[in-house]
Design a protein that fits this description.
Mean pLDDT: 74
Number of helices: 4
Distance between the termini: 49 Å
Keywords: Membrane, Transmembrane, Transmembrane helix
InterPro entries: Na+/solute_symporter_sf (IPR038770)
Shape: elongated
Helix content: 55-70%
Oligomer: single chain
Order of helices and strands: EEHHHH
Low-confidence stretches: none
């Protein structure tokens, strides 16, 4: 863990754009992000697609209804990447460990929205009326 809470690394304050001694830092708009996207991006996108798919299919296999399956899919498919980044930086003391969560956070919401649309299309039947507002 770092010596001070306002430093990316010892002697490197947040927001300066400098790279810490371990080669990482908050380098938005710089070459490091390009490599991070190329390195972590495909895995993050695959996880974005796999997690709501598995989160929807598993409850259906357990004979739960479509509504419960959709709810499970959203809970599994939309984890809080901000919490993961906060834990990586503040608890684990590594900005480098926060990169996958940051990259995952970019496609997570559009993929989850598309999954939600696909899962709920034509799902209301006579047995399952729309909830009262």
């Amino acid at each position: 863990m770092h010596g001070r809470a306002d430093e990316v690394a010892p002697g490197v304050p947040y927001g300066t754009g400098e790279v810490g001694p371990d080669g990482t830092g908050l380098q938005f708009g710089k070459v490091l992000q390009v490599f991070a996207l190329l390195d972590v991006g495909p895995a993050a996108l695959a996880f974005c697609v796999a997690s709501p798919t598995i989160g929807y299919a598993a409850p259906l296999l357990l004979k739960l209804g479509k509504r419960q399956s959709t709810a499970c899919s959203m809970e599994i498919g939309v984890p809080n990447s901000a919490v993961a980044m906060t834990l990586a930086i503040s608890v684990l003391g590594s900005v480098g460990l926060a990169v996958p969560a940051a990259v995952y956070g970019v496609p997570m919401h559009p993929v989850a929205a598309l999954a939600g649309v696909l899962m709920t299309r034509g799902s209301r039947t006579a047995e399952e009326p729309a909830p009262a507002v």
